[in-house]
Design a protein that fits this description.
CATH class of the domain at 4-279 in chain A: Mainly Beta
Largest interface: A-B, 41 and 41 residues
Number of strands of chain A: 26
CATH superfamily of the domain at 4-279 in chain A: Glycoside hydrolase, family 65, N-terminal domain
Oligomer: homodimer
Distance between the termini of chain A: 34 Å
Strand content of chain A: 15-25%
Structural class of chain A: alpha+beta
Helix content of chain A: 25-40%
Number of helices of chain A: 21
Radius of gyration of chain A: 27 Å
Chain lengths: 722, 722
């Protein structure tokens, strides 16, 4: 049995059922395995529920839509239980008790319901599901019915719901459902991208009972004597043409093989695989069970979204837990989710970086289209690697459309990706990856910046105009301190990487440099840019000016604007927000997080914090964890802990009010960073050695985490005493 | 400023506003001071809200009702804020942020709302209230409006709502409202009990602005420039003819005097008084902030309900936080709330015991009416001290009425009261109270039992037929092991008390014994009953049989009946539940709690626990805390902690689904007992000396609590190490 402390720190429970949080709980109770994500929708279905089944890489650009969507696949969940002919539903009869529990340790979702029919029969229904980590094509379900009072006749019906859309947008064509024996097969293809899709569901009942195959479902009917229990195992396999030419055949083979193994065997293997995940990724906090559970919850959601066996897909901003941002991949992956994986699951981190490597062509296309050289990564990316940020919003209520500038001007994404590559390389020492793949990303994005930087001859400096930094309230600004600083850092790193290649892997290095046309002249220009790029700053205080003219904006005292959940951008209106010194998220503070002590002296860091912390709106879910990280490093533990707990509960408590659209994956990864890089103070020093500068919240008794460093798994344990 | 750890352990917050929990939050955000209780209803009013203002002792038996009600008094809360003519309401305009916080340390409720009008003006509204602990007739409110965006015209309207009922039942007559200047006076009387009531509200605005006196309200209208703030202080006094003949005059005098002092002065005095309360009643838990906060929350609700200056009132089962159980007083007070007060606030405990003393006549009346001698306390008690348990329920949907037997047969209440008196005496050493008042309660209830016990000549034993023990699923049973055991204990204590009186206070003792007609013969009979009263028990295991025939009932395995929130009594139906071995609450386990090691050997205690724990339904909110206490004593720490946390969160998380009716006060007191008597293992040994047998939950770093022992305040601090 699970121990009480494990119950409190590994289980996320809902009890009683709260119909008003239907969409919130659907999101947080998502199960997944790096291939698929299945929202926590109920088997019997509810009005307005958002059943969503997603698989990495299956995008489709429907006619009339602005950009591609990740495709909502046929829903394998539906199971209906009838008790003496009365269909179980939590709005009929009487629910005598309800508990839904996500077991983070085992990555399994269980719902227990005590239900009394209108005629007075009482049954206990237990619904279990997990997305197998050992066979990532399998969603495994079990539905158990126990007669507690009365001996009813039970009918169980199971189907695969092919009548699915993305909130009304139809992506599937050629839908076909067939039923044979206890097996249901649904096939389809996406109507633009032409991915073939197959979902096959097979069933097995724990007692002898004839299966009835109907048009689109299978059913069993049997008598259930009081105090007896019957279980239905339903195993669904999802395959697409991304896995092979015959997804239907593969799905059938997989379900049949799995059915032979049975629920318990599959679950045991799944749990063993999760034990491996947690062995390296679990952060253990003693003295703060709420923080402990929240950190496990956020870690879980990154892990279930991280592709295990596929290096041509990446994690969207909302993971596979909802349709928000249409499954698109942003900088969230590289700067928020990847660090946790780099340190604790380097193989998964490598997959994600390889996604960018394989999509260099899209980045090169974007650079060409914009008149630049090298690789300019898209702000939003899908299966094609092309820029998929919409240029315009859908029409507003007043008929106008809003121009979306991020795809044009939020160019720091290219440097963010280079940062992630270099971070991975430093932590893992994976030279093979770097030489073959990583260096090309770092260097070709440097080529882009070399072609992008604007020389201001009058002032003998380089500048970048029309940028959007992390603070998206201020668009198309000149000389974003964040972007310019990161570009300087990027070019320095690119030059160092070039030297390293030529020193340690001369042949491969020279070939790569030749292929990317990285000449001596180009390198000289990089040096010049790095030396002369303009970074606006108050010379007296050392406070960076977020961009040209920022210090002249109207300053709003946010002190009295609490408690605020609505974004200031919305309250003030976008036009006015642009003219106001209120920022969406960590921008200069993000720079402090990324650069660490390279940012400046402790005094300069404190001055920048003091200036920017009071004006940040946290309008992005990415912001609080970054602030927590930096506050911890600066020793501001009260702020750090408050921000950390806010970040850790964004999804659990739906603090932004939009969890229905999916998990805030960057916040999840950010929570790990706040603990590891902030409170624990983990970093690599100049020689690449592990370094710890702890700043623990005073009530934490201990923190234990694991980190791979150059292939060695290290255990770092800090206690309150030391 | 309040420290972060204090924020997490002293503040109970709601954010965002959850309209579906309106009644739950109204209850948990009740403020009070031992004289009045005011539910956390919003100043601007919402459809279906349950504004409730209660004062101890004001009951009324409306025509057509079965029993008296505590009377819902005129509501002093209403304040309406209009911004440019638009009335603030959280369903109009847009709420940009909402946070409601009950500060347990300061016993004050604050609501902060950022609100945007439909025209785009943004204001911050802050609503504060507290029920003054230094002048218990005062409810003090402050409403602050700050213009954040725009410079609106503000109108503030304030009234006292006299249009109040108890869920439709009208208790008030002769209602009269008058307004003079900034003062509103509402007077009324109860239509059966004829209590006179006055509520006077006075106002003061932080800026110069003419007050407009209208028919039933006062209002102010003024311009509010951006970034300015204006505050309205509203002070309401409640007096009744229980305080004097001229409640209206007293209320006016009180509000005028208070208005002169002003909000800050009143609040500072209030906070200082609460500091005194917490100095002795606060239990400090390190290593478990959730438990820490929950214990403070439950302690708060007992403290705000405990009468400070009135010994003719007591605390109803739902305190003054809701209309559940009509304000009636049950055994909940003596066995669940009183122990905490006896140990940490003995003056308050004495007030509650004096309520029973002053109502001995009602208990004597009940004994006579039932053909017994002495004092037989009512199962439900109000201002009169007479039995006020209804004999019948209101008609059910099918027209039938249910006979309610508790008023007839739940006779253990008399012994529960005697237990509380003796416990108070032992802890405080307050001989004066005991000689003058307490002994009379203990002895005259013993007289009742002496007349009540039935002699079975055939078996030469005493029996008690037609009883209801704590487990109310089984009514009118014979030889309730709980009741019979407690009667034996009671008679033994009465004999000892008699001897003590004759030894130490001969004159007073003889007078009392003579007055109560406690003769040598009567005492001999008590001895005989105590020696021969029948207590059903399995002779092999030592397991008590809850009552005659209990072991023969149908045994239901409750293992599979989880998660269950509905009571088994409801699920099975009352008739079947009577025939089933499922119990409502701690019954034998309650006996174990009360008798401690007198119950039996450790093995016998464990056997009884093992038998009864699996069949308890916790259908009463009194049950989990008692189980937690006993489990802790038995060293069953995992169960103990789980049960403790359940008890501690019954109201905070509305685990029983009925917090709308009021706080579960017994559960609140029970939580303190679980910590003090269970985990800390505090008790008095045979010589009356303090004894500690700790059984702390393993993750608790320390527990600190204070206890008055014979007038000395002791600090008990346990750490995980010792």
């Amino acid at each position: 049995m699970i121990s009480p402390v494990d119950q409190r720190t590994w289980l996320v429970s809902e009890s009683p059922f709260n119909p008003f949080k239907l969409h919130h709980t659907e999101t947080i109770f998502t199960v997944g395995n790096g291939f698929m994500g299945v929202r926590g929708t109920f088997e019997e279905g509810y009005s307005g529920d958002l059943a969503t089944t997603l698989a990495h890489g299956i995008f489709n650009h429907a006619e009339g839509d602005l950009v591609p969507d990740i495709v909502n696949l046929p829903n394998p969940l539906p199971v209906q239980v009838l008790v003496d002919g009365e269909a179980f539903h939590m709005t009929t009869g009487k629910v005598l008790g309800f508990r839904r529990t996500l077991d983070l340790k085992r990555a399994a979702l269980t719902r227990e319901v005590l239900w009394r029919t209108s005629k007075g029969v009482v049954v206990k229904l237990t619904f279990e599901r997990f997305a197998s980590l050992t066979n990532e094509h399998l969603l495994v379900q079990r539905v158990r019915v126990r007669a507690l009072l009365g001996s009813p006749q039970i009918t169980i019906r199971s189907s695969v719901d092919a009548n699915v859309t993305n909130l009304g947008v139809q992506h599937l064509a050629d839908l076909h459902t067939s039923v044979s024996g206890a097996e249901i097969l649904v096939t389809a293809r996406t109507n633009q991208s032409n991915y073939g899709i197959a979902v096959c569901a097979a069933h097995s009942l724990s007692i002898e009972s004839a299966v009835q195959s109907e048009a689109e479902r299978v059913s069993y009917t049997f008598a259930l004597p009081q105090e007896n229990e019957v279980g239905l195992t339903k195993i669904s396999a999802i395959y697409t043409t991304r896995q092979g030419d015959q997804p239907a055949h593969m799905a059938q083979e997989a379900t049949r093989a799995a059915l032979k193994k049975g629920y318990e065997t599959l679950f045991a293997a799944h749990c063993a695989a999760w034990e491996q995940y947690w062995h390296t990724s679990d952060v253990q906090i003693e003295g703060d069970e709420l923080a402990q559970r929240a950190v496990r919850f956020t870690t879980y959601h990154v892990l279930i979204a991280a592709p295990r066996h596929d290096e041509r897909v990446s994690i969207g901003a909302k993971t596979l837990s909802g349709l928000g941002y249409k499954g698109h991949v942003f900088w969230d992956t590289e700067l928020f989710m990847l660090p946790m994986l780099t340190v604790t699951q380097p193989k998964l981190a490598r997959n994600l970086l390889m996604y960018r490597y394989h999509n260099l062509q899209g980045a090169r296309n974007k650079a060409r289209a914009n008149g630049y050289e090298g690789a300019m990564f898209p702000w939003e990316s899908t299966d094609t690697g092309e820029e998929t940020t919409p240029q315009w919003s859908h029409p507003q209520p007043d008929g106008t459309r809003i121009r979306i500038w991020t795809g044009d001007n939020e160019q720091h994404i290219s440097t963010d990706i280079a940062y992630a590559v270099l971070q991975y390389w430093q932590w893992t020492g994976d030279d093979e990856f770097f030489v073959k793949h990583g260096a090309e990303i770092v260097l070709d994005t440097a080529v882009f910046w070399g072609s992008r930087a604007e020389y201001n001859a009058e002032r003998d400096r380089y500048e970048l105009s029309m940028q959007i930094g992390p603070d998206e309230y201020h668009e198309n600004v000149n000389n974003s301190a964040f972007t310019n600083s990161m570009v300087r850092w990027h070019l320095q790193q690119a030059l160092a990487a070039r030297n390293w290649l030529l020193t340690h892997h001369r042949e491969a290095g020279e070939a790569l440099l030749a292929r990317l046309n990285i000449t001596e002249e180009r390198c000289a220009k990089w040096s010049d840019i790095a030396a002369k790029i303009y970074i606006p700053r108050d010379p007296e205080t050392g406070v960076l000016e977020q961009f040209d003219g920022f210090f002249q904006l109207e300053r709003l005292d946010l002190t009295h604007w609490q408690p605020r959940v609505t974004n200031m951008d919305w309250i003030l209106g976008h036009e006015r927000a642009q003219r106001t010194m209120v920022i969406k998220q960590a921008d200069i503070v993000m720079l402090m997080a990324l650069l660490g002590d390279q940012f400046g002296s402790p005094e300069v860091q404190q001055s920048n914090w003091d200036f920017y912390y009071p004006i940040v709106d946290h309008g992005s879910s990415l912001s609080p964890s970054t602030h927590a990280w930096v506050a911890a490093r600066l020793g501001l533990l009260e702020d750090a802990y408050k921000l950390f707990m806010y970040a850790a509960n964004i999804d659990l408590e739906d603090l932004k009010g939009n969890v229905r659209d999916g998990i805030h994956a960057a916040a999840c990864g950010g929570v790990w960073q706040a603990v590891a890089f902030g409170f624990v103070g983990l970093s690599l020093d100049e020689r690449g050695e592990l370094q710890i500068k702890p700043n623990l919240p005073p009530h934490w008794r201990s923190v234990t985490l694991r980190a791979y460093h150059r292939g060695q798994l290290k255990t770092i344990r800090l206690t309150a005493e030391n």
